[in-house]
């Protein structure tokens, strides 16, 4: 490893984690990079660069924060060689691999090539003349006072299902534990290549979600009776669409890679962090 890049949470105190990375790198001749605007609030020796440079120059991206920071790091790593190590500074941290005390040991393992990577699927959404990328989900969401989301899902040019709902969520397997999960969608292993379409609070005749192939071209068509809808990309509003407009979606497998050190499996993390229980389990006693 020649260079590692830091991606910082915009508000949480990351000073201890940054110091751990710099201390580990000091005796190894490894350059530590960070986005210049983010480093301004820290007194540290990391080299400030632009977001584009961070993605292209780093051999590893280290995300210091929660899942939102991890998603941003994955977007910076999109199409680059650097995998992303998630360091949890939050509460849930579903995508993170290590906590701050374990960070030096994790970096040494990565430097010694003692790790694996999970390819993560992205979904590109065409909004007018621009394309936006999500690693969790793209959702069309009702705007309060503007009526329901009444949306047809088209697959490879053919209408498949229609929903009347508060929102329609198109999620990657990574995003299956986020908005889609809260709307009743299935938990899906990140090793599965698929898109999950889940209605939130549906009130239409058909109210089940669907699972689509990554080879399908998917479009969300806003029907004439729909209200104006916000388009949320990984939880951030990217624009608005109205009746008669269509959002085209295309899955892109392997867009980014996440570091795994073999500490836990996806299913262990899901059970612990989502506090899953089985209704058939008998309490000990």
UniProtKB/TrEMBL annotation:
Binding site for NAD(+): 67-68, 72, 136-137, 166, 177-182, 201, 236
Location of this chain's protein in the cell: Cytoplasm
Cofactor entry: a divalent metal cation
Primary residence: cytoplasm
Family matches, as InterPro entries: ATP-NAD_kinase_N, ATP-NAD_kinase_PpnK-typ_C, NAD/diacylglycerol_kinase_sf, NADK
Annotated Gene Ontology cellular component terms: cytoplasm
Signal peptide from the UniProt entry: none
Alphabetic keyword roster: ATP-binding, Cytoplasm, Kinase, NAD, NADP, Nucleotide-binding, Transferase
HAMAP family noted in UniProt: NAD_kinase
Stated name of the protein: NAD kinase
């Amino acid at each position: 490893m020649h260079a590692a890049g830091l991606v910082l949470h915009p508000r949480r105190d990351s000073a201890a984690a940054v110091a751990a990375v710099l201390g580990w790198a000091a005796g190894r001749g490894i350059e530590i990079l960070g986005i210049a605007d983010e480093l301004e609030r820290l007194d540290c020796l990391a080299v400030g660069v632009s977001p584009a440079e961070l993605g292209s120059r780093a051999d590893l991206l280290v995300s210091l924060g929660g899942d939102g920071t991890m998603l941003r790091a994955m977007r910076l790593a999109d199409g680059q060689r650097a995998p992303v190590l998630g360091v949890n500074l939050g509460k849930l941290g579903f995508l993170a691999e290590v906590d701050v005390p374990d960070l030096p040991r994790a970096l040494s393992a990565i430097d010694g090539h003692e790790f694996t990577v999970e390819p993560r699927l992205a979904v590109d959404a065409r909004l007018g003349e621009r394309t936006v990328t999500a690693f969790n989900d793209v959702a069309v969401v009702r705007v309060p006072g503007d009526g329901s989301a009444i949306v047809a899902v088209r697959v490879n040019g053919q209408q498949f299902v229609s929903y009347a709902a508060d929102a329609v969520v198109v999620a990657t397997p990574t995003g299956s534990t986020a908005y889609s999960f809260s709307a009743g969608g299935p938990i899906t292993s990140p090793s599965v290549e698929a898109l999950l379409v889940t209605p939130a609070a549906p009130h239409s005749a058909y109210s089940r979600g669907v699972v689509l192939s990554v080879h399908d071209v998917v479009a969300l068509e806003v029907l004439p009776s729909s209200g104006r809808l916000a388009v949320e990309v990984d939880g951030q509003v990217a624009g608005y669409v109205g009746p008669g407009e269509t959002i085209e979606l295309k899955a892109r497998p392997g867009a980014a890679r996440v570091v795994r050190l073999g500490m836990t499996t996806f299913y262990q993390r899901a059970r612990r962090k989502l506090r899953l229980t089985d209704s058939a389990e008998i309490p000990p006693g």
